[in-house]
From TrEMBL:
Name of the protein in its database record: Trifunctional purine biosynthetic protein adenosine-3
Family, as annotated: In the central section; belongs to the AIR synthase family.
Protein origin, superkingdom: Eukaryota
Shown chain mapped onto the complete sequence: 825 to 1052 of 1054
Length: 228
């Protein structure tokens, strides 16, 4: 099985969905979740992962704040190096960002390119960034949704693997809409993880003749692969 590491910062419902998928014998999953890493020590997702019996590691970004010339900032490269080392220590081969609210530097992205995927609560390239659900409400769109994509250094910009639409109702609040989006993410994200872990389904183009670097290639057998 491919060893999957999950990074999270919050409530961890996507992490739970990924773990449940891999553990359901009916799915004959090619993936196995070997570690959950959180940058927030008391995130709800941390307690959930422990309850599921999954090894948990905390890499607190606040420990990487350095003060230079009176200005404090997180040394993001040093932090990402620590994340890499932690994932490596657990033998991780594929990384899933499940509500992970840190921006990844090249130290992380270059190591995991083609092997790291993220779920985003909007139909990219619309509504990039950390408040995508509110942005959809503010734009008064009637359809938004979720996207699972490969991770590149540019935020929310990597090759798209799967997307699914979610209707926006006129009386939706941020929380009602986000809950409906999350319910869809919980089936979409495991499917994308599975497609990446199978190795023969989807990959990032590395051959410049088959598309620009970062573009997604589907194998012939999976070209019509869609979530149901
Ligand atoms: C999910 O909706 C995910 O798409 C979003 O945070 C939520 C995490 O929920 N991620 C982002 O906004 C990343 N920019 P969860 O912690 O319950 O899985």
């Amino acid at each position: 099985k491919r060893k999957v590491g999950i990074l999270l910062s919050g409530t961890g419902t996507n992490m739970e969905a990924l773990v449940a998928y891999t553990r359901d014998p009916l799915n004959r999953s090619a993936a196995e979740v070997v570690v959950v890493v959180s940058n927030i020590p008391d995130a709800i997702g941390v307690a959930k992962a422990k309850a599921l019996g999954i090894p948990v590691e905390i890499v607190d970004h606040k420990q990487f704040i350095e003060t230079v010339d009176g200005k404090s900032a997180c040394d993001r490269s040093k932090y990402d190096k620590q994340i890499n080392d932690t994932l490596e220590r657990h033998g991780v081969e594929v990384v899933c960002l499940a509500g992970y609210m840190r921006i990844c530097t090249s130290v992380f992205v270059e190591k995991w390119r083609g092997r790291c995927i993220n779920t985003h609560p909007a139909i990219l390239p619309a509504f990039k960034g950390k408040d995508a659900v509110q942005m959809a409400l503010d734009a008064k769109v009637r359809v938004t949704g979720c996207t699972v994509h490969f991770v590149e250094e540019e935020v929310d910009a990597g090759g798209i693997i799967l997307q699914q639409a979610v209707n926006v109702f006129p009386d939706d609040t941020k929380s009602t809409l986000h809950e409906r989006i999350k319910a869809v993410e919980h089936t979409l994200f495991p499917k994308a993880m599975e497609a990446v872990c199978r190795g023969d389904a989807v990959r990032v183009a590395s051959d410049p003749t088959s598309g620009s670097v970062g573009a997604v290639c589907w194998s012939d057998k999976f070209k019509r692969y869609m979530p149901d």
